[in-house]
């Protein structure tokens, strides 16, 4: 089966028998191959080959200060917007912080922060593809494989780490992917933190939610709404912020419809920014414009309660989170994990210097 290649990169694919996760510094989307910056702030990169269809994907992982593997620790998965490049998921300012924001998001919330590349911008859980890139596989098998990879990652994390909560977050398509993961895997995902989540976005006509006819991810948006209506998100954090003049067709209607479906949820946090365009209200660019400095996921005029909301939710006992029944992890000594040895060593208390970790690229 044809393998997926990241946008604008020429890659040498691993043989089918070489499933080992490896470091992937050459994919650095923000500091352009400045591996030293990432190592200095102890952000690790893991490239892996999908168990499902052989596609390449990768993750950026940063642990909180004073990480203790014996104590339950929350995980935050962060997703970038459609075709945005991987800067938002690999930006050291989010991982380690600047402008007095020491420790970044992991330090503020005590989370293991994981930035997910989504198959090199080809694939957003199989629901939207970058059709401008000929290497992006659009078969039904590839669409399902993207979801299967996330399930494998959840199982691996749950089998190797002591996890109390899993949150998913992002802007635009990153917000959509977060909702979709909570719908697909409610046993793993405890909540979402989204800005301008791209629910029910229109391309060919203007059918509003819940039908979303003609939207790029019609089936996925419908499934998310059905799960919300059935109460699947009733005890989960649902944080949403959106601009009242968002310029993505149908997005505002899609987000408002979600708010109505979960209006009885005590963990719903909803904000509309008057006149706001389509942007990430959690990111450093918005915070700089509002005088907040280069800080991610902190209080600002658009999200005045995001810090309290995340902190209070994570203080509620939720875990421990276990792998799904019947999951069989890769055998000991078999390097078929989606995480490098040095990341797995951290999960067992070995620290950054332990484990093979691969030789990098």
Notable features of this structure?
361 residues; alpha/beta; eight-stranded mixed beta sheet; 10 strands; disordered N terminus
Q: Ranges with pLDDT <50 over ≥5 residues?
A: 1-18, 352-361
Q: So how many helices?
A: 11
What is the residue-mean pLDDT, rounded to a whole number? 84
What is the topology, as strand order, of the major beta sheet? 1-2-4-3-7-8-9-10
Distance between the termini: 25 Å
Query: What is the CA-atom radius of gyration, in angstroms?
Result: 19 Å
Largest beta sheet, briefly?
A: 8 strands, mixed
* Cα shape: globular
- The secondary-structure element order is HEEEHHHEEEHEHEHEHEHHH
Structural class, from helix and strand content? alpha/beta
Strand content: 15-25%
Number of strands: 10
Q: Give helix % range.
A: 25-40%
Description:
The protein is α/β, with parallel strands linked by helices. The chain has helices spanning 35-40, 87-90, 92-95, 104-109, 140-160, 173-184, 218-229, 251-261, 284-289, 306-314, 341-347; strands spanning 43-49, 56-62, 73-79, 112-116, 123-124, 128-129, 163-171, 191-195, 237-243, 268-273. The chain has an 8-stranded mixed beta sheet with strand order 1-2-4-3-7-8-9-10, sandwiched between helices. A two-stranded antiparallel sheet has the order 5-6. Helix 6 (173-184) packs across helix 7 (218-229). Mean pLDDT is 84; it is low at 1-18 and 352-361.
């Amino acid at each position: 089966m044809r393998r997926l290649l990241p946008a604008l990169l020429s890659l040498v694919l691993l043989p089918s028998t070489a499933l080992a996760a490896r470091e992937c510094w050459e994919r650095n989307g923000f500091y352009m191959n400045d591996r030293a910056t990432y190592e200095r702030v102890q952000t690790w990169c893991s490239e892996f080959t999908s168990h499902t269809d052989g596609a390449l994907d990768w993750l950026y992982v940063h642990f909180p200060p004073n990480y203790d593997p014996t104590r339950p620790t929350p995980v935050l998965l962060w997703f970038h917007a459609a075709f945005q490049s991987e800067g938002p998921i690999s930006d050291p300012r989010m991982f380690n912080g600047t402008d007095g924001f020491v420790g970044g998001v992991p330090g503020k919330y005590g989370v293991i922060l994981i930035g997910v590349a989504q198959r090199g911008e080809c694939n957003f859980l199989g629901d939207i593809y970058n059709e401008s890139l000929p290497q992006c596989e659009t078969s039904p098998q590839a669409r399902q494989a993207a979801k299967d990879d996330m399930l494998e990652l959840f199982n691996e994390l749950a089998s190797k780490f002591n996890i109390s909560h899993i949150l998913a977050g992002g802007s635009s398509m990153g917000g959509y992917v977060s909702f979709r993961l909570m719908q697909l895997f409610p046993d793993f995902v405890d909540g979402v933190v989204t800005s301008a989540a791209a629910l029910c976005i229109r391309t060919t006509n203007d059918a509003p939610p819940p039908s979303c006819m003609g939207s790029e991810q019609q089936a996925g948006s419908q499934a998310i709404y059905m799960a919300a209506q059935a109460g699947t998100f009733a005890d989960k954090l649902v944080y949403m912020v959106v601009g009242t003049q968002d310029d993505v067709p149908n997005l505002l209607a899609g987000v408002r419809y979600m708010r109505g479906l979960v209006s009885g949820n005590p963990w719903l946090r909803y904000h509309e920014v008057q006149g706001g365009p389509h942007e990430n209200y959690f990111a450093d660019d918005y915070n700089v414009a509002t005088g907040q400095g280069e800080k991610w996921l902190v209080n600002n005029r658009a999200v005045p309660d995001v810090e309290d909301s995340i902190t209070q939710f994570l203080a509620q006992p939720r875990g421990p989170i276990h792998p799904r029944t019947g999951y069989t992890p890769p055998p000991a000594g078999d390097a078929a994990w989606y995480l490098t040895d040095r990341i797995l060593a951290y999960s067992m208390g070995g620290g950054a210097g332990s484990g093979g970790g691969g030789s990098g690229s």
